[in-house]
Amino acid sequence: MTRTATSAFMADVMLITLDNPPVNALSNALRRDLHEELQRAFEDAAVRAIVLICAGRTFVAGADITEFGQPWQRPSLPDLCTFLDDAPKPVIAAIHGTALGGGFELALACHYRIAALSAKVGLPEVHLGILPGAGGTQRVPRIVGVEAALEIITSGRRIGATEALSLGLIDAAVGDAILRDEAIAFAKRVIADGGAMPRIRDRTVTVEAAHARSDLFANFRKANPHRFKGFLAPAAIVEAVEAAVTLPFDDGLATETALFERLVASPESAAQRHAFFAEREAARVPDIGADAVPIDICAVGVIGAGTMGGGITMNFLNAGIPVTLVEMTQEALDRGIATIRRNYEATAAKGRMTTQHVEQRMALISPSLDLGALVDADLLIEAVYESMDVKRDIFARLDGIVKQGAILASNTSFLDLNRIAAATRRPACVVGLHFFSPANVMRLLEVVRGSATSKTVIATAMKLAKRIGKVAVLSGVCDGFIANRLLAPRGYQAEAMMLEGTPIAEIDRALVGYGFAMGHFQMMDLVGLDVIGRDAAKRTVMGDLVAAGRLGQKRGAGYYDYDEKRRPSPSAVTAALIAEVAAAGGVAGAATRGDEALLARLLYPVVNEGAKILDEGIALRASDIDIAAVLGYNWPVYRGGPLFWADQVGLGRVVAEMRALEAVHGEVFRPAPLLVRLADEGRGFGSLS
Ligand code: 3HC
């Protein structure tokens, strides 16, 4: 068996190299090998100091998440850290890339940390629904103090080497190219200075300072409600950090371990780990291999400088890719560019970028009123009005302008991509790139594969998505693609229940209780009722609200009334309109009451649509559907997405409840064949992968 940790002796200093591609995760094998190498170095009288360094692209990225759910094999990661605590010789961690989670905890158990200037450290466990389980919650407060530790561990943010140095999380930061040599030199200096072995566990100043401040933890919880809602891990992190203050180090560690074990066994953490792997799995397209070589995208053209076009443009500017932005009128172009600038300036005002960065990004835009300016672009993205005729016209014109091999993309959110592609003589170059609004923020990018789209184009789109910080999910062509099609039934059911007499506030409350940031009607009001396209032929509550000037939050009135702080309250006007529209449409039926019944009505049709999307081959895998819902519609990540959630409910129960709903509300609740088959076989969507 190949060893994942090996040693080389460099006059007094033992260099132990961890090599477990791709990210040096601390698997059972790596921990065992590292333990043996350390043991050998501890016993070897010629060794006076040890440097831990990693091969490949990064320092240790954490515990091996794929091994979660199985008991730790010995030595566990906490054991390994204790073994380092008890080391008889100085140990220095040499960090490059990212030292995350258990990787950073391993480094914190060493006596010294030296990092490359480009390195980052952090404890991102919270994003997996767990807490740092190898001493992170006990050691970090001993370095940075309790408040900073709470912020670092509950946010899971990555900290650059310079900030880490100023916080004391590392002892030195050096040029990337000289990390190894500097780490050895550091070790030699430690030896020359007498071989001191400072341990973070022995520090007491910061935790003792927090003794007198009993309100600190309650205040932190109160100040950060968004970090806690629905999630289990943040509260457990606070509890563990509190233990660092109130208990001796070993007892604090024991508290941390107990909390870790509870969290790792929770459905919330299972869901968040599912999302972690789903995000990465989505990038794989089974029939696209190394033979499909992605095109280099050096210049992009965006057609349409409206909200979507502007947001799309920002993604490329952020990645340093120049964009030619084309509009029909100077006014629209100026407005679009001014909005982009305003967005950047707002970010700069919050201290999240410098004014120099704002100017660098703005300088990458070439505005134009002429499609001819797109002649050199490698990728063109059309983001104009959702009209088949308009889009076909643009694509036909682009066909005569852009260079051979350029990719022609449409940002359409529901139109038939194959019809758009047919307007050109190069349908193989046409792809859908469906961004979600706000396009510079939302991480989902649906890559829509038309019947003629070439493999090269798909490979390019998937790679480009990662470059601009998006998670690409491949979709086939259908009305609404994956995410919009998936979630549409939730809206239909919300509106149907409203007409049957269920108060909209109850419907919204059930969704918020489930974990959505807001309910269906709150979301409509936020987007603006005039912005949402409606079926003009049919009388609807929304149509009536718009006619009454109740356009949503921006007017202080929509489905809800809003006060000056934009807090919603039920509206008598809306209630009367609902009753009128229901009477006019002859809507019968009783109000649905109780969160469980409301959620079954709202969310089972989403699960059902997911089953259809999967069965039709529109999505490649169940986890793609989940990640599209999480990243495109803010489906609560601790529920894992609709299909993961349905598996947890049990498909047998989902089907039985849907059949009961079908008996009352009709066909829309008829369980999809795939759902029925899986339920009959006692399986879940997870078993399909
Ligand atoms: N365990 C197992 N596999 C991991 C892993 C981990 N901790 N981290 C990454 N991987 C895998 C990914 O699944 C992916 O596999 P694939 O190629 O088969 O899809 C591969 O490594 C590469 O990962 P990315 O595609 O994410 O590569 P990037 O270069 O974009 O990012 C990274 C690298 C920043 C290290 C990123 O992978 C990451 O954030 N990893 C997770 C870090 C983390 O959460 N660490 C904490 C783990 S929990 C823990 O340590 C518990 C402890 O406190 C006890």
Automatic annotation (TrEMBL):
The protein's annotated pathway: Lipid metabolism; fatty acid beta-oxidation
Keyword entries, A-Z: Fatty acid metabolism, Isomerase, Lipid degradation, Lipid metabolism, Lyase, Multifunctional enzyme, NAD, Oxidoreductase, Peroxisome
Coiled coil: none
Subcellular location: Peroxisome
Reaction(s) catalysed by this chain's protein: a (3S)-3-hydroxyacyl-CoA + NAD(+) = a 3-oxoacyl-CoA + NADH + H(+)
Record domain 3-hydroxyacyl-CoA dehydrogenase C-terminal: where: 480-562, 600-683
Main location: other
A GO molecular-function annotation: NAD+ binding
Keyword Lipid metabolism: yes
PROSITE patterns assigned to the protein according to its UniProt record, in alphabetical order: ENOYL_COA_HYDRATASE
InterPro entries: 3-OHacyl-CoA_DH_NAD-bd (IPR006176), 3HC_DH_C (IPR006108), 6-PGluconate_DH-like_C_sf (IPR008927), ClpP/crotonase-like_dom_sf (IPR029045), Enoyl-CoA_hyd/isom_CS (IPR018376), Enoyl-CoA_hydra/iso (IPR001753), NAD(P)-bd_dom_sf (IPR036291)
One BP annotation, GO: fatty acid beta-oxidation
Keyword Membrane attributed: no
Subunit relationships: Monomer.
The family this protein is said to belong to: In the N-terminal section; belongs to the enoyl-CoA hydratase/isomerase family. Belongs to the enoyl-CoA hydratase/isomerase family.
UniProt name for this protein: 3-hydroxyacyl-CoA dehydrogenase
Species name: Sphingomonas sanxanigenens DSM 19645 = NX02
